[in-house]
Amino acid sequence: MTNADELKRAAAAKALGEVRSGMRLGLGTGSTAWHFVDLLGEKVRNGFDVLCVPTSEVTAEQARSNGIPLSDLDTLDRLDLTVDGADEIDPALNLIKGGGGALLREKIVAAASAEMIVIADASKVVPALGRFPLPVEVNRFGLGATRRAVRRVLDRHGAQGELRLRGEETGQAFVTDGGHLILDAFFGRISQPEALSKDLLDIPGVVQHGLFLGMCSKAYIATPNGVERLLKNN
Questions:
Q1: Active site residue: 106, 137, 169, 228, which one?
Q2: Which amino acids does the record list as binding substrate (predicted)?
Q3: pLDDT digits over 121-153, tens only?
């Protein structure tokens, strides 16, 4: 592993220390969450008892390969804890997520959990959200109309950059696990995240967005000097 990977794995190990046998867990998606799933798999193979709901097909495949038992939110009515990564974390533990394209399932799973813990490296901690492009998941139908409506909302909220349809390296549009498309909105700084959230969700073609507001209670941040713990409202 690279030094960055080692730091991420250290943060994942700290989050794993919060997990108790018998818990129902949400499993996140991304490079740091990958380490959490890998470490959890080691414990499961040694007899640790958990039942998990993955936030993406990629995470589901990784969990199955590690022998982690999986379920879904049709079967389970509530999860004890979700452990996931983030693309940005502000001082109030508000997040931008969705760089990997799993934001809809990530938000559904987090909302069904009693607690959400984020694991990330120090580069993800920012004074205000918006440096990382905000993913907006949209329906394929009426893409042009939805894109224009999103652009108007961005202009009202002072977005400093473009609105870009996410694409694959092949030139094709990126498609989420749910069959939707993603528009990446380049802000620079989001001054009113709650108002922006509402305005985006008021657009009929918007399925969800990557602002996770008030959902995270704790974060383990990997730094060169060790893992730091951030608590909500600290």
A1: 106
A2: 29-32, 84-87, 97-100, 124
A3: 999 999 999 999 999 999 999 999 999 999 999
Helix (H) or strand (E) holding 208: strand 206-209
Residue ranges for the binding site?
29-32, 84-87, 97-100, 124
**Nearest alpha carbon to residue 149 among 110, 193, 201:** 201
For the annotated binding site for substrate, the residues are 29-32, 84-87, 97-100, 124
pTM of the model: 0.95
What is the tens place of the pLDDT at every residue in 195-227? 999 999 999 999 999 999 999 999 999 998 889
The Cα 185–Cα 165 span in angstroms is 9
6 noted as active-site residue: no
Helices (H), the chain: 3-16, 31-45, 57-65, 103-111, 143-156, 193-201
Identical fold for domains 3-122+213-229 and 134-207, yes or no, is: no
Handedness of CA 71, 76, 80, 86 (dihedral sign): positive
Domain made up of 3-122+213-229: CATH architecture: 3-Layer(aba) Sandwich (3.40)
CATH class in words for 134-207? alpha beta
Domain boundaries, the chain: 3-122+213-229, 134-207
